[in-house]
Amino acid sequence: MNFKASDVVMKFKGLTALDGVSLEVAKGEIVGLIGPNGSGKTTLLNVTSGVYSPTSGSFSMGAEIWSKISLRDAARRGIRRTFQNIRLFNSLTVLETVEVASAWLGTGDRRENALNALDELHFTQHRDRMATELAYGMQRRLEIARAIAGKLEFLLLDEPTAGLNHGESEEIVTIVQAIRRRRGCGIVIIDHDLNVIMNVCDRVVVLSEGKVIASGPPQEVRRDPQVIKAYLGS
Amino acid sequence: MAMSQKWWLRALIGSAQILVLVSLLVAAVSLLGSSTDQRILTVFLINLIAAIGLQIYTGTSGIISFGHVGFMALGAYGSALFTADPAIKAMGIPNAPDFILTSAMGFLPAMLIGVGVAAMVAAVIGRVFVRLGGSAAAVATLGFMVMVFTVLSNAEEWTRGAKAFSGIPAYTTMGWCMGAFAVILVIARLLRESDTGLGLRSSRDDAIAAQASGVDVVNSRYVMWVASAACSAVAGALYAHYIGAILPKAFHFELTFLVVTMVIVGGQSITGAIVGTLLITILAEALRRLENGFSLGSFSLSEAPGLTTAVLALLIVFTLTMRPQGLVGRWELDDLTARWLAKRRPAANGTALPFEKDRERNPAA
Predict the structure, then answer these.
(1) Contact A91/B268, CB-based, under 8 Å?
(2) What is the pLDDT of residues A122-164, one digit of tens each?
(3) Is B57 exposed, middle or buried (0-12, 13-18, 19+ CB in 10 A)?
(4) ipTM greater than cut 0.90
(5) Nearest chain A alpha carbon to B335
(6) B3 touches chain A (CB under 8 A)
(7) A139 to chain B nearest CA, in Å?
(8) Which CATH architecture has domain A2-78+152-232?
(9) Is B175 within the bounds of a domain?
(10) Tell me: the pLDDT tens digits for B54-84?
(11) What are the residue ranges spanned by the domains of chain A?
(12) Which of B60, B195, B202, B223 to mutate to test the interface with A (most CBs of A within 10 A)?
């Protein structure tokens, strides 16, 4: 089962943030989404996950096709995400934070499922701490734990290594690879750290000014003259 | 936070802890207290049910409602109309429909009618109200309370209008109050710990992240709204059958202010509502006595009308400024007990929390 976004246009009043973007992700594939600031990466994740309704375009996952979707319905279809600016629940503990997703999107015992998700992120010992008391890097990992609890078909990671040091970024790479291995889900990852993108992705899609300017294996994209001009700068 | 795994078991254990403490308080006052103390205790229990009723919605959704006293009024009048002596009703509301004039129900069925009416009204208006947040919700719920007041004040054929509706049987005993409190406490905790309650509490912190985790925010709010209205109506019925005579003004700004203060000062949890109610009931009682005049050394004041309201207002300002999450914050008594025990107990192997032993860890991460 593939996830497919076709010819997606997103206009904010006078600004065209996405201009006919198409993106396909297979189950088990990790796709990197890169591009300069303002190129439309996060907007694409937002319309895919239901934060915004696109101006036009369609999405499909297996036999299901839709043009607009709510955040909740996207999550119920297994399209899960993290956020560029960390969005945790101030008044919930680490375990409760993950339990929210396992309660609403999982089957079986919500606590057991949440503990499994925390296990995958090596996080269990922090389960009773308040989510927002965690160090920044841990908060990033907690967001991922919440996003993999319950139904998961495709995982959208919006700058999961932003603000992290080298060691923490490496850890995120390991975690992303482990999630793909265990869950077999498709993953879209936005990141400004090209080492992360090059190390973890099977394929890279490059956006510039709301359009896809290149797509292919990381090493190929790296040599693409258009990409060098628009993004890499060298 | 509690050690047990199942949410419903945690809710029941938490309810039992609170119930034991409140029962001890009731037993102590019943055995040792004066009749005035027992009166204050009854008022405390009725207020407690009203505060928990409000907290079911406000504590989970984070949206304050100034309208729940309207549901109390519906519960009070609903129960009073069906239990009052038909002879008294024939004099007071001779033009009321026959099914009201002739009715002389027992307390429980009449209370259930009041609760049913409140729940139905909540169900109808709730579809719109639960979509509102912040100041819009505050204004809309306040408007609802005023509407109920206005309708009751003008429905003279049914309620005697602004005049007191009296002859209500004095059914409210300490036993009824404790029974109703126990039932509502368990309902409130079960709702709070349920998937719906947990999801709604997460939406209070971040609605977008909650929806991205699958939470149906609007319908969860709706469930809590209707349940909280029904519980508030129980408090109204108990109040009517305790005082024996009610009038619409009893369910107006003053009571609204009192119940809202209890919830804001106490915190976001059911335990918070209880702590807030205890504090405010004692404070209000003390201030009420001071309002009749007091002396402090050479300084004496003959009367201080409005002192209670003024101090409660200051308390709200102080709480919102210094401790916006309320005295207890998000915690329940069982959470606090578990955290306290976890701090006291030396961790196994120097690292694990006591909760770690309740489950086999998957070593391969």
Answers:
(1) yes
(2) 888 999 999 999 999 999 999 999 999 999 999 999 999 999 9
(3) buried
(4) yes
(5) A128
(6) no
(7) 14
(8) 3-Layer(aba) Sandwich (3.40)
(9) yes
(10) 999 999 999 999 999 999 999 999 999 999 9
(11) 2-78+152-232, 86-148
(12) B202
